[in-house]
Amino acid sequence: MTETDTKTGSRKGLALLVIATAQLMVVLDGTIVNVALPNLQGAMDFSGEGLEWVVNAYALAFGGLILLGGRAGDILGRRRVFMAGLGVFIVASLAGGFANDQWLLLTARALQGMGAAIVAPTSLALVSTTFAEGKERAQALGVVAAMGGLGATLGLLLGGVLTSYISWRWVFFVNVPIGLLALLAAPSVISESTRRRGRFDLVGAILGTAGITLLTYGLAEAAASRDGKTHWADTNVAGSLAASVVLLVAFALIEARSRNALMPLRVVADRSRAGSYLIGLCVGCSIAGVFFFLTLIVQTVWGYSAVKTGMAYLPMSLAITAAAIGGEALVARFGPRTILVAGGLLTAVGMTWVSRVGAEPAYVTEMLGPTLLSGFGLGLIFTPMTIVGVSRIHEREMGVASSLEHAGRQVGGAIGLAVLGTLAWTKVVHDERAGQAAGSALSETVRNEALVSGFSRGFLAAGLVMLLAAGIAAVSIVLKRDEIPPPPGEAVPDGAVSAV
Q1: Spatial contact of 254 and 203, defined as CB atoms under 8 Å apart
Q2: Is 219 within 8 Å of 422 (Cβ atoms)?
Q3: 155, 236, 238, 335: which could form a disulfide with 481 (CB 3.0–4.6 Å)?
Q4: Mean pLDDT across the stretch 488-493?
């Protein structure tokens, strides 16, 4: 190996470190606030349903704008846009840490989501700019995928430590030094991509984001209120859901006809890639609900501190990381479909198992076992899902493919939390009313039993969603193991997609 090769290898290693760090940061921020939610609820006087919007504000902005972020990287240069996104994320994190009321906090969370919508697709697309097609790129994608899986659970651990020993505000402030290090290092270790001609589909971005936001709002507001009534027939709920359908249909029609579409149909026309995006939607839907509900149970019902809650998730983090790191080798041996089906089934079993959680603490049998199983299953999913999501795609559309790979998980998380939250809170209210004696105050015992019963329904629904993900993998992922990645040097024709 020559001195030039050594320097090139070192530079690529540093570039991967910066890209993976940024990826870890934006994924981590989707869950780091979860452990701090009880503290946030007390400090900001959020209702149970309103508390979901601390998570949803981030997920909606992230998922709704991510296609625009990926397109911006393709047109303006990925490194330049990547750095701009880091800047937005850092400023929004500072604003979140200093927020002193609900609206300021939710606005900061939405701005964080906007920054993440820029960073996430450009970081994944930068892998294609930095690493040669073939084994080198597949290994780099495996590392980035592992960071995506690790970030979700590491956020819970770090959030617990920061909330317990410093303040809930530090779940926001912690992003600042991490983001600044990545921002300062990026110009010297990451090469700029070729800028390409094109326009921004702002109309499509507005319609898509507004449609998803109204859909999630309507689903969340349909949950039962304290009087035990659901609100599906309320004007604001019905109006929001109807408007979301109109906007999303308009978005689909515009994307089908636009020359500068945010989501070109040729990218999602490939059967395997489309399947990977749907699997990402299911994964986001399931884990958002499970993390939200399980965190509230162990802190509110079991009485765990924030740091103890974070430590309780540590085995799950290790399981996700171990499975994700080994994912590239498993895909090379068994093919992506087998690994995705196995991961989906394991995760479904784990989430169904956690639905047996009770009001009395039983960590080993009711949290450790199911989260280890779910973590291993999720780790198996992340690497093949990422590789298939950007496989057999022309380099000029790598930003779009990267965006869709992330968008499914983020939009799925927002919609999933709304749907699972509606199911869970409706059951909670019903059980509270059933267990409360006429004219008496609600006892803590009844309240805890109602929470456990309602959230168990949410866990069961999450398990069914992951069973659906396994089914989608079985019927849609048709790429063979020798097609991922394509042989080094093989060119993919302009605008081509896999013909499978």
Answers
A1: yes
A2: yes
A3: 335
A4: 40
Q: Looking at per-residue confidence, does 246 or 479 come out higher?
A: 246
The 3-class secondary structure across the chain, one letter per residue, is: CCHHHHHHHHHHHHHHHHHHHHHHHHHHCCCCCCCCHHHHHHHHCCCHHHHHHHHHHHHHHHHHHHHHHHHHHHHHCHHHHHHHHHHHHHHHHHHHHHCCCHHHHHHHHHHHHHHHHHHHHHHHHHHHHHCCCCHHHHHHHHHHHHHHHHHHHHHHHHHHHHHHHCCCCHHHHCHHHHHHHHHHHHHHHCCCCCCCCCCCCHHHHHHHHHHHHHHHHHHHHCCCCCCCCCCCCCHHHHHHHHHHHHHHHHHHHHHHHCCCCCCCHHHHCCHHHHHHHHHHHHHHHHHHHHHHHHHHHHHHHCCCCHHHHHHHCHHHHHHHHHHHHCHHHHHHHHCHHHHHHHHHHHHHHHHHHHCCCCCCCCHHHHHHHHHHHHHHHHHHHHHHHHHHHCCCCCHHHHHHHHHHHHHHHHHHHHHHHHHHHHHHHHHHHHHHHHHCCCCCCCCHHHHHHHHHHHHHHHHHHHHHHHHHHHHHHHHHCCCCHHHCCCCCCCCCCCCCCCCC
pLDDT in tens, 103-130: 899 999 999 989 998 998 888 778 877 7
Is 366 in contact with 456 (CB distance < 8 Å)?
A: no
CA angle 224, 226, 230 (to 5 degrees): 20
Q: What is the pLDDT of residue 491?
A: 40
pLDDT of residue 457: 92
Residue 395's closest CA among 275, 482, 493, 477? 493
* Mean pLDDT of the chain, nearest integer: 82
Phi-psi region of 394 (alpha: psi -120 to 50; beta: other; left: phi over 0): beta
Contact between 15 and 78 (Cβ < 8 Å): no
Taking only the tens place, the pLDDT of each residue in 438-452 is 556 668 888 889 899
For residues 62 and 286, what is the distance between their CA atoms, to the nearest angstrom?
A: 17
pTM of the model: 0.77
Place of tokens 């498993």: 330
Q: What is the DSSP letter of 438?
A: T
Supply the pLDDT for residue 487.
36
Q: How far apart are CA 420 and CA 458, in angstroms?
A: 5
Q: What is the reported pLDDT for 29?
A: 80
N residues, the chain:
500
Q: Which residue has the tokens 């994944």?
A: 124
Q: Is the model's pLDDT at 35 over the cut of 60?
A: yes
Name the token pair of 142: 């495996």
pLDDT at 477 over 60: yes
Residue 457: DSSP 8-state: H
Residue 196 burial (CB count, 10 A): 15
Query: For the residues 475-482, what does the mean pLDDT come to?
Result: 83
What DSSP character marks residue 131? S
